């Protein structure tokens, strides 16, 4: 997950060429997906990881996948407010 956060930081820096931005967002989603395969539903960071994944997907304009991921995060922890912020920014 830490590498996902590094890639998100790289992708969201100002002045990054679009290809590099897309590469880093794709890597971030892949890193998060790796962790998601290894943890169960009770993992405490799961809503945060899903939120970060959905935000990356939204920045890559993969809105359907982002919507599904945001919804899963809300289902896991309805009182986790960052998911609502990210979801609203997508819209």
Describe this structure in words.
The chain contains 5 helices and no strands. It is mainly α and 91 residues long. Helix 1 (2-11) runs antiparallel to helix 2, helix 2 (18-38) packs antiparallel against helix 3 and helix 4 packs antiparallel against helix 5. The longest helix has 21 residues, at 18-38. It is globular and about 35 Å long. The mean pLDDT is 96.
In short:
This protein is mainly alpha-helical. The protein contains 5 helices and no strands.
In total, how many beta strands? Answer: 0
Helical stretch tally: 5
Helix-strand sequence: HHHHH
Low-confidence stretches: none
Provide the helix percentage.
over 70%
**N-to-C span:** 26 Å
Give the integer mean of the pLDDT values. 96
Beta fraction: under 5%
Task: Report the principal-axis shape.
Answer: globular
Structural class: mainly alpha
Quaternary state of the chains: single chain
Rg from Cα: 13 Å
Main β-sheet, in a few words?
A: none
